[in-house]
Amino acid sequence: MRETVSRDRKLVARADRVALAPYTVWAVLFILVPLVFVAYYAFTDNNFQFTLEHVKRFFTATSTVIGSDGSAQEVRTYLLIFWRSLKLAVISTVICLAFGYPIAYIMARAAPRVQRTFMTIIMIPMWMNFLIRTYAWMTILQDKGIFNNFLTAIHLPTVHIIGTEAAVVIGMVYDYFPYMILPLYSILAKLDPKLLEAARDLGCSGWGVLKRVVWPLSLPGVISGITMVLIPSISTFYISQKLGDGKFFLIGDAIEGQYVANNLHFAAAIAFVLMIVLLLCMGIMRKLAGRRVEGGL
Amino acid sequence: MKKIIELRNITKSFDGEPVLKGINLDIYDNEFLTLLGPSGCGKTTLLRLIGGFETPDEGQVVFLGEVINDVPPHQRNVNTVFQKYALFPHLNVFENVAFPLREKKVPKDEIEARVSEMLSLVALAGFERRSVTSLSGGQQQRVAIARALIGQPQVLLLDEPLGALDLKLRKDMQVELKKIQKQTGITFIFVTHDQEEALSMSDTVVVMSEGKIHQIGTPIDIYNEPVNAFVADFIGESNILDGFMLEDFRVTFSGQTFECLDKGFGYNEAVDVVVRPEDVDIVPIEEGQVTGVVTSVTFMGVHYEIIVDVGGFKWMIQTTDFVDVNEHIGIKLDPDAIHIMKKSEYSDLYGDYSSFSNELDELSDAESEVEA
């Protein structure tokens, strides 16, 4: 009897593997193989001999920048670029979370019709091409653009935004906002309203309910929202060129630049280091959140 | 006895649909009170009004002499055990129970002490570090009770708390709840659609339907002296017959005149007569006050449930004597087996077993549980 059971189990396991085969092939072909190539290129030279040269270059290459007081300064080129990318990406992510969370919460509590309307409004920009969206922001933010014309019309002084870090952050927030809203909304919509009532019943004010029940239960959504905004915004390469006037070279721009210049190995090395850092960040974050939410993501 | 809650002329509608139609109810300290009625009768809405989750359209909710219509739930000294427990899945057993104390910033060692005391009260000592999602239904139920009691509320509201448990566990929890209520001395307001549960646990039963209260009384009063055909039918089984009061203590129905214990009706007043199935004596045909033909016999374990056709009206009788289908039998009623009720809008709707089937009854029970 037991043998039959174990044989059945094996059959089921084999059937599972067969059913999963197309996905496995897909994953190997389009996820694993490219990753292996990135790693392979990162650690080889033009003759495909093993080398740490490119990785080392990422950490050690220097260049001279002219500070605001006119003095020349020696800096680690790629570490500086990386730091700048990380900073802008973190700022964008925090802004997305700060705006996205309340909106997602209100959406999740609204009537179904309102929820659908909200969702459509949030999704519509995603139907437009990413380049076009970025160009649209250029025309809005230019010194003589729509925004400044509006300020002039209501007799306010104009502001210079285009070519600043603020413009880059605006572009990133706009582009990646839906990726924050969607996971937050889907987890908040699933929250049992009885739990909120229970918290009220047990002495929580409205704020207490948010802090002690809603927020901890929505942490998995917060983590995936952060992941889905932080990763693309840290490696974005077009927004900074267009909205930053090319003044804020980001890590994505560096990778693109090296590829375009046909330095595939160095481009791969930058991409590889970036990937490792992101994986570490995500790992730490999940660990921290996992301590508070069992069986989260 | 001290009045703890008074409901005065409460009305409530949802989307123009009246759910409560003028409810008046006094609830006393230390009482186990049950709101009993079919699903959709407004009993849960009434509970939510007391909990603070709804406000009445008209009328007043009075708590210890103060109108609390607009006091939010977290400022009421009332806690709720929710239908599906509503435990916090991100917290373990200890933290779920400690939840109200943490909100009140109670010192740490006091929290420890009170939580472990509470967990032993509900027989869950040693479960502190367990995740609530790993507990069985009965255990989750106990955590919910502990969590609701730890803040020392003056009133505990229980919204069909046993509905999700299987029969055996349900019986155990009934006993346990009653014990906890006695031990803590807290007023329990218990909502159920299960009449047996209501009768066995309560000090006071409030029978409701269609947003109105029909009767308030002890379980024995409710069973023995139902006010109308709805209550008589909803609480236990009843034969409800059309009759006339001839004078005090004499009533005519089924073509016969019987002695009874009821008085105060008008001469020849049309009344509803209730006879409980277990109060009917089966006698040889020549000794019977009325006679009939047995049309069905069902063995129920403790007794037989038989349906008897008496001149076209089908009686249900519960008896330990065996009779056979198609047998002619006599029926005899003692004066205290007969209860007389005034005619009401519910007359003629209930109490005839001509379309009776056990199967149908169970089906409708199952349905109402799903709705609830």
Compact description:
The complex is a heterodimer of chains A (297) and B (372). Chain A is mainly α.
Provide a descriptive summary of the structure in words.
Chain A has helices at 2-42, 53-60, 77-109, 112-123, 130-141, 146-153, 165-189, 193-201, 206-234, 239-243, 251-260, 264-292; strands at 62-66, 72-76. Chain A has one domain (77-292): MetI-like fold, CATH 1.10.3720. In chain A, helix 7 (165-189) packs across helix 9 (206-234). Chain A has 297 residues and is mostly helical. Residues 293-297 of chain A have low confidence and may be disordered. A two-stranded antiparallel ribbon of chain A has the order 1-2. Chain A has 12 helices and 2 strands. Chain B is of the alpha+beta class and 372 residues long. Chain B folds into 2 domains: 3-224, 3-Layer(aba) Sandwich (Rossmann fold), CATH 3.40.50; 229-371, OB fold (Dihydrolipoamide Acetyltransferase, E2P) (Beta Barrel), CATH 2.40.50. Chain B has 9 helices and 20 strands. Chain B has a 6-stranded mixed beta sheet with strand order 6-7-8-3-9-10, with helices on both faces. In chain B, strands 13-12-11-14-20 form a 5-stranded antiparallel beta sheet. In chain B, strand 11 and strand 12 (250-253) form a beta hairpin. In chain B, helix 2 (93-103) runs parallel beside helix 4 and helix 3 packs across helix 4. Chain B starts with a strand and ends with a helix. At the A-B interface, helix 8 and helix 9 of A face strand 6 and helix 2 of B.
